[in-house]
Amino acid sequence: ELDDLKNQIIKLIYLTIALFKINNKKYSAQFLLHSLDENPDNLVFQTSHPLVKKIKKDPVYQKILDKLQEKISSGLLSGEIWPNEIEGSIDFDSDDLATSIHGIKKIEYSTEKSGNDKFIVVMNLFDVYDFQKINTPFHLFNFEGYFKARVNNVVDAGEVFNVVHDFEIQITIKETLHAG
């Protein structure tokens, strides 16, 4: 019976990957497929990658830049930013990012002065691709939230049955900031 349940979970995960692709959630589909590897490699993305372009368009990215400018202005030219420093979480809101990058765990940054009040900042964003079960109360007017929670819980069950495996995601972004 456990093997039947595990096979059902695998089918549902492949269905989820197909739904992500149909809905143009490229990274959500790629990351979930990657997590099916027995020992998935950690993924590293550089500034020029299209994923970084998506991140830069997300409203949460501006909050990260604001926090960086605040730290640089106070003389902290290298260090870390934790989720509790940015409204308690660093979760991207954009459709594909919301279902692929689950929440940045930490940002490391370093700066190099490039003019009077101009700084070149290199930041590394770290995430762990993993899932945690969430409650799924059905609500007639929030079907999308209900559906997302159900999908999340299927993938979480995949982790329990050792079908889905965690991996780290590192995103390196180089940015020029003005602080003063």
Q: Unreliable stretches, pLDDT < 50, 5 or more residues?
A: none
SS-derived structural category: alpha+beta
Number of strands: 5
User: Strands across the major sheet, in which order?
Assistant: 1-5-4-3-2
Average residue pLDDT? 88
Secondary-structure element series: HHEHHEHEEHE
Can you walk through the features of this model?
This protein is an alpha+beta fold and 180 residues long. Helix content is 42%, strand content 22%. Strands 1-5-4-3-2 form a 5-stranded mixed sheet. Helix 1 packs antiparallel against helix 2 (26-35) and helix 1 (2-22) packs across helix 6 (143-160). It is elongated.
Sequence-ordered SSE layout with sheet pairings:
Elements: H1 2-22, H2 26-35, E1 43-45, H3 50-57, H4 59-73, E2 78-81, H5 95-98, E3 106-113, E4 118-129, H6 143-160, E5 167-178
Parallel strand pairs: 1-5
Antiparallel strand pairs: 2-3, 3-4, 4-5
Provide a concise account of the structure shown.
The protein has 180 residues and is of the alpha+beta class. It has helices spanning 2-22, 26-35, 50-57, 59-73, 95-98, 143-160; strands at 43-45, 78-81, 106-113, 118-129, 167-178.
